[in-house]
Amino acid sequence: MLMYWIVQKGKVLEIGRNIQAVKEGESQWMEFLGSFIKNFEHPLAILLAQIITIIIVARILGWICSKIGQPTVIGEIIAGIVLGPSLVGMYFPEFSKALFPVQSLGNLQFLSQIGLILFMFMIGMELDLKALKNRAHEAVVISHASIIVPFALGLGLAYFIYQTFAPAGTQFLSFGLFIGIAMSITAFPVLARIVQERGIHKTHLGAIVITCAATDDITAWSLLAAVIAIVKAGSFVSSLYTIVIAVGYVFLMIKVIGPFLKRVGDLYPSRENMSKQVVAIFFLTLILSAYATELIGIHALFGAFMAGTIMPDSKKFRNMFIEKIEDVALVLLLPLFFVFTGLRTEIGLLNEPYLWKVTGLIILVAVVGKFLGSALAAKFVGQNWRDSLTIGALMNTRGLVELVVLNIGYDLGILSPQIFSMMVIMALVTTFMTGPAIDLIARLFKEKSNVISEKISQLRKYKIILSFGNPETGKSLLRLANSLVKKQKENTSVTALHLCPNNVLHHYNLDEYEKESFLPVIQESEELNQKITTLFKASDNIDDDITEITNQGDFDLLLIGIGQSIFEGSLLGKILGYTTRIVNPDRLIQKVAGKEKLFGNSPFDDRTQNILSNSKVPVGIFVDKNAGSFDQIMVPFYSEKDITLIEYIQRFIKNSEAQITVADPIGLIRNHTEIKESIRAIEQEAPNHISLNQGQVIDETFIGQFQLMIVSTDGWKQLVDSRISWLNQTPSILILRA
Questions:
Q1: Residue 272 burial (10 A CB sphere; 0-12, 13-18, 19+)
Q2: pTM over 0.70, yes/no
């Protein structure tokens, strides 16, 4: 009542303030609609809509590229071009103007610049300066050749295209230096991830190429800083002042700021004792460094890169910081840069055959300079031809770093829209060709890269490979494998495989991550007295790599833990469960390829189904319910194909002396002579370890006495489809597909 009284009294205060009366009826609805539509046009609403669209399109195209063996950055760059004037702007101009109005591009640019600053900070931290010292001779020769040769060719190319394509008022020195730098760049982050994904990061070749790319990065960014100084100063002589100040800045960062940060890092080495104030010191160093280089005149990105290189050199410390900023920088902010670049890239400007010939010439000069320059230098320092050409192919990767350089040139007015578009196409082509070029080199030299070690490829052994993501799952799978081979260790081998997503690791912390991932499994193997071989790989496509490694190794059994959907147990899962099976991209590929029926309803999650479809060896899918041992096992038979389960029954009895109960819930065994005779043969050999229960009703009480149920994939599908009431009460389950 008091509030109502105050509101009524307040209305009296409105007299004389020109307040319009609220309209009634239809006009009120129109007023609401007008206000609602205006909300869509608010700058923040437009920016959020842009971010949502950019992330979705970038993720989709990045996923497609990963499926065809290309770095996801290729898809993200293409996403920018698709959303720009080259496609959406050309065919859907009204939509493009509504989503990317000219007045909103400033907000997009500044956000993308923040993303780039964080990205360059990460690149600086990823550099292992100790590794550079250890391989200084080879790295310096190869990386400098990979800069000098393409730089010289780029300068020569600039001479021929300057008059036609350089913007008015641009000096030849500025134009030529920028074209030379653009030809010389190697995308260190993309190259590092390709090396990881190919599994060569631990080889001599991988170490050399990572070191070369890191050296290349330092040299190229130093040259770029000098070039920017020359461009902004107007001449080389006047730029010397800027260069001298820049050298002083670098000296200050290395000799003063670096030791101070190392001291802070030593005092707060772990996540637990690092306070927000300490984190603020490091981020403030990043921002101040970027600000200083922007004021000096060599671009804020160089300052971010420099700040990253002087961070404490502890791998654990750097990894901790990268984890803090990686997802925000790479997933949220960096795609904005791709789209902003795409909005500048107008492929429609290349509307004459002559312009495409020039584009082809640019690509040719870039490939010849970088590829041949690196390859010949590698051969010169003693590498064989195969490794030399592989180094050349990898150093020819340009990716995102090339776009950074091109955008700097565009912002400085050195590159015209036409030449900018040509150079973006060159960046895409040279990055796209890296994977196929490496594959072609391997085929030409008839050396097939194989992550399977020689000791796994021994013949006449029963070989089990277990693939795990979570180390606890790995321990359970190892106990299961041990139960199958415990007493036949001299004639068996067990391999533990751990794959992790390629985009969550960095080349410098792979060894540490591998150690941590395998430690619980190795400790379990020591307790079981079970020798194991470990395999580790950073992967862009985990389920495909699992089956490829298994098929190549000629294993006898693949053991995996079953996956769970993120929607499982939720209302959204009940609503979308069947739909997500139909529209899941991986499953759709299987259906189009004819490996899965279009409307088939599999009881397995998508990753497991993909492994089952592609694996050429028997697969065991283990559902762990915390069984410590496997002494009491039930094996129900549901189809004639279940005769393949006999082999595993024999193995459990022979190796772990398990008690096996064979159940015949549908009366199959009494009418199947071969299965019946196989069970009798086991009874004669081990009468106290197997029993056949015919006519037994399976319920919660019956299955409660067992620690493991073994069932075929066909039998499991029948159980799931029939919605058996006791299914949720089962012990651990091993689902086998022969």
A1: exposed
A2: no
Which amino acid is located at 166 in the chain? A
CA 454, 457, 459 angle in degrees (round to 5)?
130
| Nearest one of 631, 596, 633 to 611, comparing CA atoms | 596
pLDDT in tens, 3-42: 888 877 777 777 767 766 655 555 666 766 777 777 877 8
Residues 178, 90 share a domain: yes
- Amino acid at the residue 168: A
For residue 341, which amino acid is it? T
- CA–CA distances in Å: residue 662 to residues 305, 632, 665, 701, 708: 65, 11, 10, 16, 12
Whether 676 and 702 have beta carbons less than 8 Å apart is answered as no
Do both 591 and 464 map to the same domain?
yes
Please choose, from the candidates 122, 48, 109, the residue with its C-alpha nearest in 3D space to the C-alpha of residue 503: 122
Question: Is residue 367 domain-shared with residue 431, that is, in the same domain?
Answer: yes
The pLDDT, as a whole number, for residue 384 is 85
Distance from C-alpha of 727 to C-alpha of 735, rounded to nearest angstrom: 13
| Confidence (pLDDT) at 585 | 45
Residues 166 and 276 in one domain: yes
Domain boundary residue among 594, 614, 634? Answer: 614
Whether residue 475 sits in one domain with residue 420: no
Strand partners, 635: 662
- pLDDT of 196 reads 67
pLDDT over 50 at 241, yes or no:
yes
- Per the domain annotation, does 9 fall within a domain? no
In a domain, 50, yes or no: no
Q: Which domain holds residue 552?
A: 456-614
